[in-house]
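Appendix B, record 7
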Amino acid sequence: MENAGYTTLTRQSGLMREMQVVANNIANAATTGFRQEGLVFAEHVQRTEAGPSLSMASADVRHTSMMQGALTQTGGALDLAIEGEGFFLIETPAGERLTRAGSFALSAAGDLVTPDGFRVLDAGGAPVFVPPNATGLGISADGTLSAEGRPLSQIGLVRPADINGLVREDGVMFRSEAGHEPAETGRILQGFLEGANVDPVSQIARMIEVQRAYEMGQSFLDAENERVRSALQTFVRS
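Structure tokens (predicted):
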């Protein structure tokens, strides 16, 4: 296969990965706290000893959008949304994770937990505990959790120390490879949930663009394959 064929194949592979990312964004457009993801394409050009240089495309770097999602009022005492920067700190069997999905509940033991049962951590990294007799739960903008005006704990609000080191582990959970630090400007809103920051219209438009680009690349590969076949047939006859 000539250089043009290899270049097109690497581009096709990147377009397939981008199609998967875009489809995942669209599928999660209604998922609480979901962060839209994009793919970064790069071109690598290498000089060859004989003939033209060889160009290869790659699409291995993923970019997560930190744009604010729409806030919806639910009235739930344990429904929390973040306005501005920051993530909730969650304890999982694999270690501490970050999320913007704030649909929480109380476990049988009195811990504040996610729908998956992972415990929410306070500003010091300890689980947020609510006594069984606590009533009138209130959560202020800085995350202070109180019962009838008496402070109980402070829900942790953090940000990754290096935004480029943020790795998505599932739809709404992230791992910060560089650790985390307190988020200074974010605010916690009680009785609200943040929706996905996905723009479905632009994502559908991008899906169409990716599909057309892939079809164009496939047409080129088909034409190149036919050209090589015709050349071989001519060579055999002669």
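Remarks on this record: The first helix runs from residue 3 to 27. The first strand starts at residue 37 and ends at 46.
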